Amino acid sequence: MVSKKKFYVTTPIYYPNDIPHVGHAYTTIAADILARWFKIKGYDVFFLTGTDDHGKKIALAAKKAGKSPKEFTDSLIPKFKQAWKRLNIKYDRFIRTTDKDHEKFVQKALQEAYDKGDIYKGEYEGYYCTGCEAYYTEKDLENGCCPIHKTKIEKLKEETYFFKLSKYQKQLLDYYKKNPNFISPKNRRQEIINRVKEGLKDLSISRTSFNWGIPLPFDKKHCCYVWFDALYNYYSATRKKGKEKYWPADIHLIGKDILWFHSVYWPAFLLSAGIKLPEVVFAHGWWTFDKEKISKSRGKVINVDELIAIAGVDSARYFLFREGVFGEDGDFSEKVLVERHNNELANKLGNLVSRVATLIERYGVEKTENKIHPSEEFKKAISKGKIEIKEILTDNPKDNFYIFEEHIEEGGKYGRVFSEAIRYILEGICLLVEKQVEEYELDKALNTIFAFIDYCNQYIQNRKIWETGRKRDLYELKESILKIAELLSPFIPESAEKIKKQFTAKKIKKGEILFRKIK
Ligand code: MSP
Q1: Of 46, 183, 201, 344, which has the fewest CB atoms closer than 10 Å, so is most exposed?
Q2: Chain centre to alpha carbon of residue 324
């Protein structure tokens, strides 16, 4: 028996110091989309999310709430789980850094690094931002404030253990070179490489100023720095029976603010431990709200319930991946979410589904054979990543159909003419969407699917199918809609499931409205 290919995707583990907001939802939905996609493709998928329970930030928040850190985080975990459930997110494990198996693993990793000589004792002096749980040097600060949180920053001096990060500079640079996709998207790569080239200082990995963390096994008055503890969650989760096969992770999805930790510290810890490195660390941008970062510590927050309340779960999921380029920043706007819900989900997708179902209910379908397949040129262009379909044109004076494939790099366009072209286009669309999703271009994948939805609506219009009642056209449209539902199901699972049910029923009928318009 050939064993299935595996796909292991992770989200950051979130600080449970407040309820989750749209920024957290974004990464978690992205992971869910990928997990669902690869499951459909037959992969053995492991999707990990969870919370980062230790550290000074949590200890302070708990104190403020008058609770112990454990009581405090225990009270917030159900909020995360509920939020993910409401957003239709199907993870395989919810890890907490306070889980016993994880704590035990981190102690083992610390001991091994210590025994190997990669951890040594020293003294640290620097500016510590509790919001970031990170030290800064004087030159990183902006007017004495944290560059991210803009809050005044404290100078700390303490006895600490260091991890020999500097020792791994060359190995890291070699790894980046040999694995050009490790830091993704591409445009984030060079900045990291430049910083690593400037030189790496050894990293302080223990604290004595508070004790909400994992004690160092070789010096119990120190507790482990939260990032050493946290990053190891991705690996410790695969140390359970039956889970070993998932390591290395195929993709760590994160926000750009924590790329340094994931592309420098994390691979260095793994190099030290002699563990394989993850395939890809993908850093997406930030959602802003009125152009300011949405964040708990800065006061601009849209929580998950508020997000869902605007236009429903699927519309929220759709909006987040249609609105901005995946990888870059996006500005959150309730108005635009509602517009996309109305104009795209209700008018384009919803209309297509209800029109075709109504016509099939009236006229029925007649099976056609698919004789036209994507050309070799088309496949080649896709595999080179050259194609981006902006619009499929259905200008058909002679009942022929055109697809314009735009070569981005060459800037040229070429067109092809086919009759019965819907199947040709459909197959091409599937290949292209597959390529886009598997290269983590989620927004582009949605653009392609919606270009095809536009095309289907045009097809009905141009062929006046409501007058001709042509059963073969309706068969083509039915097949197209089923494929659209499959392609969209990772993004909008609930609606896609409804469409699938409707169009695989013995008698296809006009169903309930998929997306009700919002005023
Ligand atoms: N606990 C660490 C991660 C440890 S992973 C080993 C952490 N937690 S966090 O709760 O502060 O943030 C988690 C993620 O949420 C980060 O990837 C961050 O980029 C993301 N977001 C927080 N606010 C965001 C936006 N406004 N927009 C998009 N994502 C943002 O960091």
Answers
A1: 201
A2: 13
234 lines ligand 1 (CB under 6 A): no
* DSSP per position, 328-347: B-EEE-HHHHHHHIIIIIII
DSSP for 187-222, please give it.
Answer: GGHHHHHHHHHH----EE-EESS---SPEETTEEEE
pLDDT, one tens digit per residue, over 91-149 is 999 999 999 999 999 999 999 999 999 999 999 888 988 888 888 888 889 988 998 88
In the chain, what are the domain boundaries?
A: 351-504
Q: Whose CA is nearest to atom 17 of ligand 1?
A: 255
294 in ligand 1 pocket by Cβ < 6 Å? yes
Torsions phi, psi of 214, nearest 5? -85, 125
Cis peptide preceding 185, ω within 30 of 0: yes
Q: For ligand 1, pick from 11, 15, 17, 24 the residue to mutate: most ligand atoms within 8 Å of CB.
A: 24
Whether 15 lines ligand 1, by a CB cut-off of 6 Å, is yes
Distance, in Å, from the CA atom of 275 to the CA atom of 264, rounded to the nearest integer, reads 15
Residue found under tokens 């946290």:
230
CATH number of 351-504: 1.10.730
Q: How far is the CA of 24 from the centre of ligand 1 (A)?
A: 6
Q: What is the pLDDT of residue 140?
A: 87
Give the residue, by CA position, lying nearest to ligand 1 atom 10. Answer: 14
Number of residues that make up the chain: 519
Q: What are phi and psi of 373, to 5 degrees?
A: -120, 160
CA dist 427 and 480 (Å) reads 10
